[in-house]
Hints:
Elements: E1 61-62, E2 91-92, H1 165-172, E3 177-181, E4 184-191, E5 194-202, E6 205-218, H2 219-225, E7 234-237, E8 243-248, E9 253-257, E10 269-275, H3 280-289, H4 295-308, H5 313-325, H6 329-342, H7 347-359, H8 363-376, H9 381-397, H10 403-417, H11 426-449, E11 452-453, H12 455-476, H13 482-499, H14 507-523, H15 527-550, H16 554-572, H17 578-598, H18 602-618, H19 628-644, H20 648-668, H21 677-689, H22 693-706
Amino acid sequence: MPSRPFAILKCFVAASMLGLALAPLIAVADERLPADPPITIATVRPIDPDEANQPLETPGETVPASPQASEPGDAPQPLSAELPGPGQTPNPVDPPAAAAAESLPSSGTTDASGPAPPRVEPGLTKTSPEEPAAKLKPVPDPAPRGEVNIETASFKSITPGKSTLAEVQEAWGNPSQMTVQDDRPVHLYRVEPFDRIEVGFAEDVVTSIIIRLQQAVPAAPLAEQLQLGGIRPVLVSNEFGEILGQSFPERGVLFAFEPAGQPGKATMRVVDVILEPVTAEAFILRAETYLDTEAAASAEDLKHAIQLQPDLARAHWLQARAATSMGDTELALSSSAEAIRLEPANPQFLVTRAQILRQAGRISEAIPDVRAAIQNAESRPHIKARGFSLLGDLINSDPRPDYAKALENHMQAISIADPLISSPHPAIRIAAMEVMIDAHLGAAQDIAWGNWQNKKTAVNTWLQRASDYAEAMTAVESGFHTDALRFRVATRALAACVGAQGELSPADWTQRALEVGERMIGANQDPHREQQIAWDLGLALYDAVQIHQVRGEQDAALEVGRRATELLERGIEGSGKPANWLLVGRLYFRLGTIFAVNKSDHQEAVRWFDKSIPLFQKAVDGIPAHEVGRLGETLVSMGVSYWEVGNQEVALHQTRTGVELIEAAVEAGYIEKLALEVPYSNLATMHRHLGENAQADRFLKMASEHRDTLR
């Protein structure tokens, strides 16, 4: 008696302005640059908001030019595929468009578009070996045709989860054979036109119906015959990546496939049709499969899964990830909290929560979660490696970063992940290779922003190794999202290059990011995902703007900056995030300073500043304390251009507001008192020009108190 393939779905379970919060998904290495050239306008002087945030110049350490890590291993040998028995866990795989079906010879196949099937809720057609069929080609998943009702499919009036043993016997008579599998009765029937039907029972209620087809038939035409064409299916694989079948979650139907002969391939030829009650697990599998490409659809699947089984922790975890992709930080945090409440020690859930907290700018809260994940992941080294990589990212994102400590954690992640990249288990192998990519990128950023010797050579080496791992991964892993990996490398490389303070040209990485990012935007059908890619590309170009500026390449900075504003403006529409408003406002400010400082065109500078001020005002309640001083310095510098074009009222207002923010930052200990000398001097000059000598004298005295000699 064969193993219980109808258990396959049941196995799924076992399987006033206050500062810049972190931008979502991509950490922009914003504003730790050397001071811009000063604007000299009488004695009203701008100050550089980035100057106070430079790393301290202390003797550096030598960084190895070549990271010590082996190359990705060879692809595992194909293993034979079979339907899983109890305890085996199917895994999500890429949809058929990515996991290509094998082309099969026409001889011996049947034409699934032949005689119409008998209508038996829906019916099934017994295929005829005499009917030839055309060569099978990969068939993409059908687009959903509006809302699909969720209802368990029936066969010959028998419905899994509802029909009883007595009802089966009344409808079909006595079975031809009875057996027991896993302490549960299984009855065999012959129901025209099928020679073998297996019905499983639990407590005299039907749990599954397996219809054994006499000959394999193509999946897509069969789905249409069974009125499943309006449902988006999802491929089902085992832990070795072998595609076992295809599930239709809204009906509880599973097609079991003929073995393909190698992992990642699907014959798309059905040998068994399995009916079970609709369960949460099938929706979860589909949600996870499409999470990176169709977040909104995945979120809807997870909503159904949670309605079906509210205490399923994995559903809440995936809902947190989907919400993050869609920019809903509040839902992401609440869903991740619920997942951890249900499974407090799950290291994967803890890592995800730490990632969400990091994106929300809550670094101090994220670090304990990721440390707990590392501690709980002793038996899951790929998650432990991810934890160390994330811990390195958190440390170098902290308001007071320790780049040497961050590098230690990234190196630890590499040492753990390196031997796992040759694992025969795709889930472990892919996770390890992604850690290798991210940890190399993180190490490059640690070195770029820290105090190290041979920085240019070392950063280039680490970035190239990250790129090499990404290319190796796309070559080895069938159907993996090649562009997404390349985009990740290019965008994070630009963030690292910002820290190199002009030593590394951004041109090549900018070109790669634009080429891949715009291709991904054009190919994406999920509006939420498209908007997120546009936003991430805009952030990467913002980094390129900063690098061009510090290299003195102002025209290149303007060209890239204008494209960045187009992309970021798409993402900021309707955004309720102060971090996003502030970030776009800072970009407008940077472009304005190019005109003010390098082109002496204050009129054009003010046009850009006019766009930034409303965004700064909207961001007033969401800026972290350590960013207050930087924003204050920004406003003081903007005041110079307003003064130059004769808009004295706005100039005075922006300068006063900036001074208040800088004073708050000084009092909180985030910047030195010296930062107030230029703003006070500017206010003194402005009031003197307006004939307000008493005010001018007061600010002049305050300036002198913060520096013995006025510049």
